[in-house]
Amino acid sequence: MHKHYTVRFAKGTLPLRTPTEGYFLDPELGQQKDILTEDDVYCSCLAKTLCHVPVPVTVGFYAPFGCRLHMMLDKITALMQQEAAQREAEELRRVQWQPRPVRGWGFPRLLWYLVFLQPVITELHLRRKNVKFLFIRFSAWQYAGTDKLWAGLVTTLCEGIRHHYGALPFSVYSVLGNKPAATPGFCQREWHCRRRVCLALLALLAALGLGVGLLYLSVGARAPGHGAAGGSLLRVFGGAATTLSGSGLLMAVYSVGKHLFVSQRKKIERLVSREKFGSQLGFMCEVKKEVELLTDFLCFLEIYQRRRLRVVLEVTGLDTCYPERVVGVLNAINTLLSDSHAPFIFILVVDPSILAACLESAGSMKGTADNGYLFLNRTVTLPFSVPIMGRRTKLQFLHDAVQSRDDLLYREMTRKLRPGGAVGGGGGRGGRDEGAQLLAVETKAAAERAQSRIDAEAARRIQEALFCLHDERDCLYEYVPDNVVSMRRIVNTVPITVRLLQQQDGDFAGPTPRQAVAWVVLANQWPCRLSWVLQCLEDRQQAGGAPEAGARLWNVFYDNSRELHSMTKALQNVLDLDGDPELFERFLGADFPFTVAEAQTLLRCTVNLDHSIRRRMGLIRAVSALKPPSPPKSPAHDTPHDARGANHAPGANHAPGALRSGQGSGHVPAHAGEAHQPRDQGHGGKPRPAA
């Protein structure tokens, strides 16, 4: 019998069978039901991590593929929204407070809070777990023809937030809003009255009323029997009071209207369109002020709505732009991330090999990004390398490719209508439908309980793995670098690796949490050397001479280190990514002696190792294994060679004499030269290039 697993996905709880089953048929509907693919598992783990990761964060979504990336982004979006809805329901059960709406009847209340109340960041707000994600997708290809690609990124972000919450609230906040303040002591009040605004508004309204009253009295004083001097005096004071108060109110309305019709996007485009905008003093400072205003507005909305807000900006098509444009976008991202409280999550969908080459060839980055990989590591705080397409994913893609467009649309419609049940039918079938519905409810409840147990066990193992990083009784912390960005990369990657191990081994019979976090540190600190070991293992497996499962990775690296040394010139930039070589030897040789079997298990769960490095090594190794064609031999050289071969009897003890004879005559036989070269069993006995 096949084993069955239960994994919760965006569309509900789906049964996941063993990889040998592929697809299965629904006996009632007679249609193929979808199973969870490898891409679904990876997207689910990344989505859960992004719901808990501290912001701001830049996710390096590394992959050389095409439309599959957009499909994975759509899955991640759906899963993050599902996780946000679940946390919203849990927070509602905990505090019994409904989030305040910003549309409909809640819109006048929002304007009232914007004008008359001051938000305060309290401990209650910091403890909130519910979150709302705002997804904005930026395609760099649409702005590839302009010199201001980075400006398109900033304007797209501002326009997306303005479009989601409306132009009027942001315009009112730009004129009358106030930055949220920190809580004084242990005060739990989230809103304080803005006394200055209230007093100023009351003073203007009082002055306006007084002026109108004086003008009315001056009109009455012009009647017969009243003094003309008194009427003129009242008219002067009334006109002055009305003019001053009215002008103050009109100025406020004019400022709000100006921000209403002139958005941040138009402001930035106007600054960029000016001649010599780059040489203007404080130009980037003005852009930074606009971004800070946007961040403060989002913080205000967090306190008003009683939930955390996260803006997810998906940057695609960056590897199709010119190098200078790429540099501008990365600088814009660093500008947006310079605020430590910015609620931004950047998903950088790129091919790292192309992006590194763009950074290295950009003229403005000479001396700063001579190594594009190092510069990219300084920007990305959560690397996620999309794995090679798995078996189930490939089957699903092939199945969808065979189907026609109408069949795909029909399948989507039936999938949406399936939970509602069938329409029509006789009276005898009603009992069977009710029984099927009850069975489906019970099955779903049991699956949810099983999934909750799996999530609890995964959370415990993630805690155990993260504890190994800062446990002073363990030696793992010695291999963690002092760089804060690298620490965040490791900490952000560990939950994904542990969850992937959980999906791979449901009974947790595979590597331990300590081994998982050690593997993450190994991939982060020595990506070049680890990629070389994995490439050597792959080549040996393809040649049919794979090492034993219990063989150590250090022995594999040591046996092939000479060949890696011969490639230092071609892999110089990649080798610069590695840390201390002595620590690498101690890591694999003594403290964490990973075996070949463990490496093959952990490789399927590795997301922080750039696969393009291994592909580059494989190409270089394949080219170096090719032999040049031997030149034709002349008869003058063949005769002495044949004579020597006939005079010497075959035997191992005659090889040195032949070698010395060849050296004395200035000719080295081919077989004698090959006899002293080390041979690689993974390449079928071909001589391995020496250092």
Could you characterize what this model shows?
The protein is α/β, with parallel strands linked by helices and 691 residues long. It is built from 28 helices and twelve strands. The protein has helices spanning 38-50, 67-95, 106-116, 123-126, 149-165, 167-176, 195-221, 228-261, 264-273, 283-305, 323-336, 352-361, 372-379, 391-402, 405-417, 429-469, 484-504, 513-525, 527-543, 553-559, 561-565, 572-575, 581-591, 596-603, 611-624, 635-647, 655-664, 670-675, and strands spanning 4-9, 12-17, 24-25, 32-33, 57-62, 117-121, 131-139, 181-182, 191-193, 308-316, 344-350, 382-385. It has a five-stranded parallel beta sheet, with helices on both faces. The chain has a three-stranded mixed beta sheet with strand order 8-6-9. A two-stranded antiparallel sheet has the order 1-2. A hairpin with a 6-residue loop joins β3 and β4. α11 (323-336) packs across α12, α19 (527-543) crosses α20 (553-559) and α19 (527-543) crosses α25. It starts with a strand and ends in a 16-residue tail after the last helix. The model is unreliable at 1-34, 419-428 and 637-691 (pLDDT under 50).
Strand order of the largest sheet: 7-10-11-5-12
Stretches with pLDDT under 50, minimum 5 residues: 1-34, 419-428, 637-691
Helix proportion: 55-70%
Q: How many E-type strands? A: 12
Our Rg estimate from Cα atoms comes to 35 Å
Class per helix and strand makeup? alpha/beta
Shape: elongated
Please summarize the sheet with the most strands. 5 strands, parallel
Relative strand content: 5-15%
Mean pLDDT: 75
User: End-to-end span in angstroms?
Assistant: 54 Å
Number of helices: 28
Keywords: Membrane, Transmembrane, Transmembrane helix
Transmembrane segments: 197-217, 237-257
Region (Disordered): 625-691
Pfam families: KAP_NTPase
